[in-house]
Amino acid sequence: MNIKSKVYNNTLYVLLCGELDEHSATHTKIVLDEAFSGVNFKQIIIDLSELEFMDSTGIGVLIGRYKKMKDKNIPIYICNPSKHAEKIFKMTGLYEIMPKIV
Amino acid sequence: MNNNFMEVKFKSESVNEGFARVCVAAFCVQLNPTVDELSDIKTAVSEAVTNCVVHAYPKHNGVITLTCEIEHNTVKISVSDEGVGIKDINKAREPFFTTKPGDERSGMGFAVMESFMDKVEVVKNKLKGTTVTLYKQIAGEVEQVVGG
Prior knowledge:
By secondary structure, chain A is α/β, with parallel strands linked by helices.
């Protein structure tokens, strides 16, 4: 899993590249938590256009980040999910807490 | 292809989750599945193998046995371990149920398997551990008739 992030216009943009499963979950949590610990943004957009695979472990990772950011009142949005990721998001109800934006 | 099978054994290391799903996907290609069907199978296999890595062998590594059988256009995938076993299988299959809530686990593993496959069986092994069996009928790509 390769993770890129940048802040632009009060928004933290995060690009997840690779596969998000149990094997990559710990590394992903550490890198995201470090990026999310910044103070120069008011919202987060996670771009999944380069996410090649995700299972329910990925949902656990995202919900964990959502809980941390909720305490700081910073919303997280999802963009560019694959058809596959979208299927998991819809069945688990993830979009209810991390809405999809176009 | 009317019937075929394969079996692999591997260590319960998380790095082998990717190996397991790619291995099954490569075997299923002979049924000419759609990209969506292959994605469903890979996800379900990943969930079953993750359960073995995280729950069946929580302290020490063990062996995971992956078998894949094809009969006509149906694929039957079994993921078996010799680990600690599941205390209450019905409870474990409930959405959002997890025995490790502090680990940021979604508790959706079995729900994803059930949603992405046609049928999921979970049985306690006679001696030790659990076997999860996943079934999916492959409709496959519709062959286009060219010319006439």
